[in-house]
Queue: 4 jobs
Job 1
Amino acid sequence: MKEVIKMFMYIILIVIGFILLIKGADFLVDGASGIAKRFNIPEIVIGLTIVSIGTSMPELVVSVTSALEGHSDIAIGNVVGSNLANLLLILGVCSVIKPLEFKKETKVFEIPFMIFSTIMLFFLCINGSGTEINSVTRIEGIILLAFCILFILYNFIMARKGAYFDKDNTLVEIKFNQNEDISVFKSLCGIIIGIIGLKIGGDLVVDNSVQIARLLEISEKLISLTIVAFSTSLPELITSIAATRKGDTDMAIGNIIGSQIFNILLIIGLSATMMPINYSTGYNSNILLLIVSSIILGLFPFVGKKNQMSRGNGVVFVFTYFLYLGALVLFSE
């Protein structure tokens, strides 16, 4: 009877977490869009930086805490599982709602950089010798953080240039609109409120999902790749869907790609810098799936309908994600 009551309380707290995530996502998208329009910054740049870091906060908290407490499986599994959910499920669902258009920078730099970051993580995890074999060391963590800083600088340089390419690869100068009556303070408050809502909501969903998993005696590896990973991806899911429904597809794409990059470079980098992370080779197949899926995403703008991720592509991605979940459950130890 006590376990049933506990389960019920966990479910109630998860529902509250979902509500905070939904409202937080709305505030974050509206605030970020307001700043983008007020300062003529491309929405994809906002998505790749402010929104991506904000929606990656649950992953950051979970992975850093897990690393410090010695739960390396959760630290790695959370990021790998979240990135798979972001790429296959969330981006897939968004493209089903509305086909996603890719800008030139996304095709030629951001997606390739995401693929590079994922491959780099894999080799950092499996390299080394002696006591450092199959681990991400502090030095390697610093390397990841250095690339993270370079990525952030790239986005701000692109914003300061005030120029971007449209889907036809034509250079578009972004001119300041003096008639754009948008309150910067209100937009910033929206971003702050949104991030706080996402953080609290994410914590409620993650913590109570883990408690339910423990009651059901699910393994730590399976928890990290499924429940924890999906729960920490909820901000990206809700934010990207909200942005897509509002027509801000650039922000939806930027949010997912930016989150993929920050999850690896910032979260694993910071976690490993604070405490070296031991890596289980049991995650090899998961990271390889992530690499292959990222490469396929990079091919979408060049095959089929040019510069677009179609609804059909989205259906394939979503179907692949559910096949992946089924395989995890069937072949879990």
Job 2
Amino acid sequence: MAFIDGIKEKAKKDVKMIILPESEDERTIRAAAKVMEDGIAKITLIGNPDTIKKDAARYGVDVSGAKIVDPENCDKFDTYANTLYELRKKKGMTPEGAKEALLADRTMFGVVMVKCGDGDGLVSGACHSTANTLRPALQVLKTAPGAKLVSAFFLMDVPNCEYGDHGTFIFADSGLNQDPDSEQLADIANDSAKSFKALVGDDPYVAFISHSTKGSAKHALVDKVVNAVKSAHEQYPDLVCDGELQVDAAIVPSVAASKAPGSPVAGKANVLIFPNLDCGNSAYKLVQRLAKAEAYGPMLQGIAKPVNDLSRGCSWEDIVGVVALTSVQAQIAR
């Protein structure tokens, strides 16, 4: 069974309501239909009901089981507007401004629905930037209790791969934090390990990635990673992690035996923590395109309720996968 098939089966055991605000996108409509057909989640689409139904008919899919909420004709609009106003009034939000924000931004509307308990999670980003998804989530839902920062990871499923967890990895941060410092890298590592355990179910082995392995190169970028490992050991003593490690030393046992003998992680890493967004984002795209891997994300961690981003290059099948993952996150967060 492929990794994502296992996630879908988990999602079916406790079906959650997932909000999809990008109903203008064909991929979203197709994904919504498939999610409901397979019983993975209940779906709320935000948009004009007539337009959504006409589009679905044109694409040859059935979304009749979806809840469709039109911000311009929503019986809970005033409740949502007041909720947004109360949350943001100290930042200068006015009652009228709250109404305008909800009508102008469907992602904001959907996030407020989640805040009010009318959805268990939200997936957006097929036709909007990460900032368009993240900003409303942070403004309305805030960070989760105990979370030090919000970060983004990709859950990678590499076919016919003996490395990682039978080809399954988390790559972080691959979608949000551009140049995290050592302390932030340690926090990202800890959160990513928790995400791996929650979603994959197996024990995480965390490698802090660098162009150097155990002092083979000297540079300020290497120092940042070395200090991140030190911080992780100090702050999270139960975290199984090591670094700095080159990618081959992190995942290939024979290379690990030569470059990092005695490491508790080298040769078996399944959670890869990259030193900056350039590395993390490039790595996931290379593995996705060259190794024909499934890449699910960017998944966001550290937010009070599940909100997940999508790559604008995603397929409708990718959206189905992220909806399933979001549903499982909602099960865990309950």
Job 3
Amino acid sequence: MTTLSLKGFVKDVIYTPCLNPDKLEVYDLAQFDVNKAHAYGLINLGTSRNNLAFSKWVSPKRTRTYPFARIYNTYHLNTKKVTIIPIIKDEGAGTQNNDRINFITFSWMNLLNIYIILAWYEDAEKKPGTIDRITNQILNVESVREKLTEVSRYQMSALHWNTTHFERDFEPIYLNAVAGYEKISEEQSVLVHNPQAHLDALEKFKVDGHFSLTFLKEVSLPRSYAATRSESLTTHELESLGGNAKGIFSISNYLGGEYYLTADEVYWENNQLVIQESKNSSTGKLPSKDDIKDGLFKLILFANMEEVTVDERGNIQFITRLKLTGDLMGSLFLPCATEDILNFCAKNRLTQTHQKSLILLNQEASKNNKLQIWITHHHA
């Protein structure tokens, strides 16, 4: 697959989500237990009109448990948004799953003004019938509560908080996570991945004995991105680009710094660049709500880019598109007239729930500049 390297600039992020949850659980900060709390909700800080919106990740890996859909569920709220991320997640030596947080996650959160709280797993159970898998992992509760209190009093942007939090707390939290897995291994007589690999990685993130965000960026941006950044692409190649190029965006904003984000697919259509996220339902009519929210959340930043450039070429016209595929007949392009949605639903015998989702998605595509949603069959 070709990889296309683009530059973007985000002045401001303005977005209206419409697939919002009907209600959010509210928790008191003093009793907040990250392990028992819902995947997203509100934390009451005890003073009037003062809440934090929170979401939590099960793993630092962005592709597995829809953390972006959880953040999407809080994005409509006009309050400070916090997301709690385990710095490492090891599911036992008998699995491939041994993930750590990376710079791209840091980038997404900074650009969307979401405050990160790094957390670590300190307890777990051995999966019954195995010697090398763990389950029911428990995050350290006190440190999360402490950081939530700090964020609630913090006056600067999420970018400032995240930068300071990583520079000051990344290493101790990371070491707590490594120690947590060693303790779980010992107490539960279960095999986990060799901690040395995580300790070696930590050394690579350091300069002069101190954790460095620059080194985290360099180590955790895959080699291919580095190669992509140095490759040049002629105007002719850009214009003949068919489907299926992956987009790597180097994005800057007024607050400074360069952040890297990836898009599923970029291609040229009618003299404009389409930045597309695709979600497919292999068995049903439409992808799950979490899948759809995950795709929409990724497009928020792309839809808010003021300009996109490739190499020396000036501003490129672009749109963002969420492609949803399933067992469907025909296609529907949003935004469109409500009547078109009703006809499409009737033709495909979609449920009332699906119909309601499509009407809300139509609102989302109407209210947000540069956003289109394309609903079609598997093979389109």
Job 4
Amino acid sequence: MIELKSISKWVNIGAARTFILKDINLQIKEGEFMSIMGPSGSGKSSLLNIIGMLDEASEGSYFFMDHDVFKLKEKQRSQLYKSHIGFVFQAYHLIDELTVYENIETPLIYQDIKASERKAIVADIIDRFQIVGKKDLFPTQLSGGQQQLVGIARALVAKPKLILADEPTGNLNSKQGEEIMELFKKLNKEDGVTILQVTHSEKNAAYGSHIIHLLDGRIEKINQS
């Protein structure tokens, strides 16, 4: 599903080149659940952003579902991202001016899905996440755990093949965090969704079948958990 070949990312500071990622080679099969760990500044979020097509590498190639991502036009890349990738962020990234229902509906509007169809899809996911009673509330009226739940519902509403989660439990208490991780596990096992998460938590990382350890922008090792 995902293949990264010799991916490097750098920034030029004066005459010096500073590497954020260096020579990353990685394969992720469909249906896998993988975790990325490493100290701050090791390149975890940068790697996730390249896989999520939010950023480009300075060098190397990236294949996603047999598409050579860096050779696609921006419109094609955007279509690929919207159709197959769901992002879950630590900071939720919900739109404060929109209700829970409207936040979840947003990705479907970008996909030009008819209003009647959108209604049915959103109703189904709101029911599945047991947040029917919250659908008319605004993000600021929700707890952190509820906001993250809405963020995950929004990421899943378009039925992506891949979920990218950047510290998805970072702002939650341990009970809320556990509930979110159990939800990911269920999505992976029952729905076959491929999941790649960045985490500082060894407990959360262990939900994945493999743990990718990054250090100074390089893959130090990949362990089975």
